[in-house]
Amino acid sequence: MKLKSSFVVLPLALMALSKSGALAQTVTIPIETNKNALVLEADDKHDLSTIYFGPKLADGKEYNHLSAAYGKDNDYTGLMASAYAPAGSRNLLEPAIAITHADGNQSLDLKYVSHKVDKVSDDVSLLSIVLKDQVYNTEVTLYYKSYFKDDVIEQWSTIRNGEKGTIVLNKFASADLYLKAGSFFLTQYHGDWAKEMRPETSQITHGIKTLDSKLGTRADLFQPPVFMVSMDKPATEDEGTVLYGSIEWSGNYRTDLELDPENNLRIISGINNYASAYQLKANESFTTPPFLSVLSANGKGEASRKLQHWARNYKLLDGNGSRLTLLNNWESTYFDFDETKLAALLKDTKKLGVDMFLLDDGWFGNKYPRNGDHSGLGDWQETKTKLPNGIASLVKGAGDNGVKFGIWIEPEMVNPKSELYEKHPDWVIKQPKRDEYYFRNQLVLDLANPTVQDFVYGIVDNLFTQNPALAYIKWDCNAVIYNAYSAYLKKDQSQFYVDYMKGLYNVLSRIRTKYPKVPMMLCSGGGGRVDYNALQYFTEFWPSDNTDPLERVFIQWEYSYFYPSIASSNHVTDWSKLPIKYRVDVASMGKLGFDIVISKLPENDLKFVQNAVTNFNGFKDVVWHGDQYRLLDPRENPVASVAYVNEAKTKAIMFNYLVNYRYDEGSKAPIRLKGLDPAKQYKVKEINLYPGTNSGVDENQTYTGDFLMKVGINPKVNSGRSSVVLQLDAQ
Ligand code: GLA
């Protein structure tokens, strides 16, 4: 990271020590963003605590009054609000860090030593605070990277072993937050294949609530790492104080939410220490992945707009760029295709008007051709019987048709029925003395092994070297890790889960060094693999294999709290009997793709789809780079409504869907917009009309933003108009 300037904010605390060893005065460290302040304080015993996280104070000097105002009288450990609670000394609650020292001792007591702030840019600052144990030579640096405009904070730690021998990290969290409020409400998510992102909200009671994953890879299939905590009452879209949090890690994670005896909430989040005690040799250090949080006093909508804005600007690969619309062959052919079929699909891609054809699973394997999901995975050579002229001729064929070409891979995996498995059984994660156990008939390759990392990198590198015009990769990951064991790690098995992820990131960062921008989709047999560490390397993710648009209204709604729409790959498929218009409209709230048989579409459906692609190209910029406003919640209303408004507030797109199919349900009243300019006049036009149907709005009328936000407009959604898209243009 390049730092523009670097300076020490306060004199090193040790210099301020009195003779008794106490700090002459407490050291208050505020981290201020546009609207908030996270305030830390080292007291006279050098214990570093979080003393405040809320709206920033007008007068910064008054942060010094905070600890007296809140008091710590009942905390006889002095560590409940610790900024990084250590295990084995005075602490009686869940620790953020637990260590076994080289001599076997398990105690740790971290004391504040110094801190500094580096200004990364006008918007970004990096605070680092050094803590040290007074008995053992263990040093921890806490990092807080704050993004001023978006009120986002990333925090992580680096643990250094200054001892002569090896120490063991039994727990090594990234963040230890402390929130004060009258009550706390947790919104968490759960799911499974085709049922991703199901929310549950409950009041947090005393004790510990743990969100975690032990799946090894595609780790958030059952429980994604994202969560929300509302303070005092459950936040709504526009009201209430809410903190969003997520660890940026694609493997096993663990977040503990502990309501302590003082009724305050401790949030300790990091890599899951389950089966993962990590050894650090003398002079080695371990850096934890960032934990991300955003705090808003104005409800869930504002929090998500900040997070989406931050993601586009700082994390998601090419977040401010463009994306390719596409036609995918998965659901139209599955494994059953050849050059003739694909040639026809390339023509359909052009006819449809999208940018690219995406060849899915089934193009590889010769000894064990990939004609189903039981064989061939790992053997990345074109199946000669299906594609005698190879990928190169398909890429050329796409170019001849004026479209780009993308390809599916699942490089971390292997079918036992493959040449790869026969040649390299020691590259596969499996217990040496136990039966193999499969997830979708496959096993996971051992990315803790550098040779396997080279192999996986080589799959991508070879594809691009042999086909420089290849425009896109769909990177799939369809299995979890059973029987976690690495032949490479031998006796150090407890490092496996962490080293697997480090190996994956190593491969991805090598790919990005050589191919910085080529778009790649993070897919995982449906959802179950999206987080902000992975999204540094990917331009988009696959929210779910469930592409039924009614389901997608709900699934995309929940993802949108945490991820921007430009990252959401939405495909139109035949999963549902809902009209093609409904399916296309829902998929247009993100990165539009198709996975249907274009040649079999009835004439009007085809006309509609071609027109919708043209419309999408006209408004995609607003959906991808604008601000998103959730207007009507599908869980509370018969109609769901979502709008996107561009930064200049000159253009907005409003999507409205019937989600309750009972008799006479629909939009009975105007739906209020948000985020418009009250003073501007807007013309409202219905777009994506199915051929032969009429607009439900009066297109000769203009309305002020004021009217549209106070009264709204009725999109006239009903069973005959189950999906309505309105475009608003400032005059
Ligand atoms: C996963 C993906 C699908 C498809 C198949 C291919 O299930 O989610 O989109 O690519 O794999 O096997």
TrEMBL record:
**Residues annotated for substrate binding in this entry:** 193, 360-361, 440, 474-478, 523, 545
- What keywords were assigned to this record? Glycosidase, Hydrolase, Signal
Signal peptide extent: 1-24
A Pfam family annotated for this chain is Glyco_hydro_36C
Read off the InterPro entries from this record: Aldolase_TIM (IPR013785), Alpga-gal_N_sf (IPR038417), Alpha-glycosidase_related (IPR050985), GH (IPR017853), Glyco_hydro_27/36_CS (IPR000111), Glyco_hydro_36 (IPR002252), Glyco_hydro_36_C (IPR031705), Glyco_hydro_36_N (IPR031704)
In this chain the Glycosyl hydrolase family 36 C-terminal domain maps to 640-726
EC number assigned by the record: 3.2.1.22
GO MF terms here are:
alpha-galactosidase activity
Gene Ontology biological-process annotations: carbohydrate catabolic process
Residue ranges annotated for the Glycosyl hydrolase family 36 N-terminal domain, each copy included: 47-281
Q: Which domain of life is it from?
A: Bacteria
Residues at the catalytic site: 476, 545
Q: Which reaction does it catalyse?
A: Hydrolysis of terminal, non-reducing alpha-D-galactose residues in alpha-D-galactosides, including galactose oligosaccharides, galactomannans and galactolipids
Family per record = Belongs to the glycosyl hydrolase.
Protein name (Swiss-Prot/TrEMBL): Alpha-galactosidase
Organism field: Mucilaginibacter corticis
Q: What is the lineage of its organism?
A: Bacteria, Pseudomonadati, Bacteroidota, Sphingobacteriia, Sphingobacteriales
